[in-house]
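Lab notebook, page 48
Experiment: co-folding of the full assembly
Goal: obtain a model of how the components sit together before planning crosslinking
Operator: M.T.
Materials (sequences as entered):
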Amino acid sequence: MEYLQIERNQPWRESLRKNMKNKERLQLARTKMPERDPDVRSRNYQEVNLGLTHEQALAESHRCLDCVNPTCISGCPVGINIPKFIKNIERGEILEAAKTLKETSVLPAVCGRVCPQERQCESQCFYTRKLKKEPLAIGYLERFAADYERESGEVSLPEVAPSNGLKVAVVGSGPAGLAFAADMVKAGYRVTVFEALHELGGVLRYGIPEFRLPNDIVEVEIESLRKMGVEFVTNCIVGKTISQEDLREEKFKGLFIGSGAGLPNFMNIPGENLIGVMSCNEYLTRVNLMQAIDPESDTPVYKGKKVAVIGGGNTAMDAVRTARRLGAETAMIVYRRSEQEMPARLEEIKHAKEEGVVFLTLHNPLRYEGDERGRVQRMLLQRMELGQPDGSGRCRPVPVEGDTAWIEVDEVIVSVGVSPNPLIPQSFSGLEVTPRGTVVVNAETMQTGEESIFAGGDIVRGGATVILAMGDGRKAAKTMDDFLKIKA
Amino acid sequence: MNKIVSKVVFSDRVVSFEIEAPLIAKSRKAGHFVIVRVGKKGERVPYTIASSDLKKGTITLVIQRVGKSSQKICDLEVGDSITDMVGPLGQATHLEKFGTVLCAGGGVGVAPMLPIIEAMKKAGNRVVSVLAARTKELIILEEQVRTFSDEVIVMTDDGSYGEKGLITTGIEQVIQREPVDQCVTIGPAIMMKFAAQMTKKYNVPTIASLNTIMVDGTGMCGACRVTVGGKTRFVCVDGPEFDAHQVDFDEMMMRLKAYN
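Observation: model returned without errors.
Model output:
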């Protein structure tokens, strides 16, 4: 808090506040993100959001009141100094804005694109809380600053402390692992990240499609880490290729497990093994990681014409919009609750609708049937209605007796959630694992039962978000740094 | 990384590669496989590790030219590198001194069967191997199989080599003349289905090593799922070996045609 006040009292901040009265700022409307035309973009993989122009970013930054008590920061899982980066944009110091972001977030270009801001920073903005008006477009501005820096070619690398001679290992190159690696390498550790797949980035690479998060962007962020000294080893599965014992022998003093939740959930209903019914992981891995849409790629992907995606989260939106791009004439979301309960980002739902996706909310599949070759042909849907709230606080969906219907489909993508990858829990000793498969950690320190092993991200939370994973990685780095310094 | 140190061409369709992979060689056991990719646009495909050399830090893969990816790999030469290779994957073969083990390998299944035959022999079992294929040219690795087996029976559909008949004939022959404690079968799905039906008739416990479509091979996607004893299992992490009498081979065969 003190640091925030010191920053806020800097002459340049005061001067900005004086330049424009709050009354004037409050008159400005929230900037709209320029988007590619839905009819055009639903046939290609180019990024849908085009990004704010410099003028738009400046205009939006004017709206920020530079509050004495910036509640927006409390909504950010990694505690970015939001007013500072926004005010840097306002005074034209975009590279400084990017530096500010990087003080706390190693992947600002990613978060600006995929964070559910409406539930995080923007939900805590003064505009939302007190004025009941549209909040600062904090996400759009974060993306603007990060993209500007990348495109300028003057990507700032945070300062790296001199080497302290200690080695730490990371399992998984997804957001949790990357955030942990960034903080540890800055603190002077020798960091090695082990990745099971042949490409880095975890869910950023295999899960989130090109039209939402271009792979180039992920690559630039990872390259920054390489430049800072992080070592990446692909095609190496901790627990299979190398063991817990091997890591000890190699003198790794601390281990962070960020192996994610890459185990697909199926519904176990009849017909789920028909050809054409697959998990969202399989579908997105074929398209995103294996580039199945590239005609020169050897990996095939089934291109249905009548595609149903079961689920209502971001992954379901990614899958259904990918299906449209692969030529589906009908692309449907089948979700057992109502639209209000959908966990997906509002922007993804909006984009999906614009791209012609049909939303069959309050519907649940009962079974699938196929032809004599085993290819799915239709699904039986049960109409649902909302009943009493369940454990998650949302209304429990209840079947409407007798109200069922057959819908023709030739491809079904099951996107009803993911579970933690079982490899590490099964191959490591000393870890406490819940029945759900998540690794148990101390919520404050991110330490497991084995003191030198930490964990964070989806392996601890089950399927969650990029930013929460990053927050865990950062927390774990702080604690491990303290822990190792004491031990040494 | 993943450099090919030696290549042995067994026939115009079967090639054996010895590849630098010290970490995999160290943790590899019989039954394990690797996922391999050739070229930046290559697909990820599984191959059973035929053997490993801890001292040299190498593993050996025996690959049959069947489709696009196996052709690409078979065309590589000594000194070339495999673009991506990860392993060891899957659960290792359960090894025990069972007594007499019958190894029934059909067609391409003989390559992944080889390390199991060797391991079963080294575990102190009497090993009888039945090799089967449609015709003489498709019988592979007979010499290598003989090295580790107490007896080898060769069956061809057309009688061009060994005895004329299907693998089930060979299996039944062995079971009827001596007590068999354990059977292992690997080959085309339909072959394993009938082999399993045969051994079930005689109550011989049987393991089948399944070869489904795979994408990542690490348990992430479910493309390799099969139904065993009514439950969904992933071949890449729960298998590749399962109780053959519990496997739904019909469903497996149907799913294998997904990209035909």
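Interpretation: Chain A has 20 helices and 15 strands.
Next step: discuss with group before ordering constructs.
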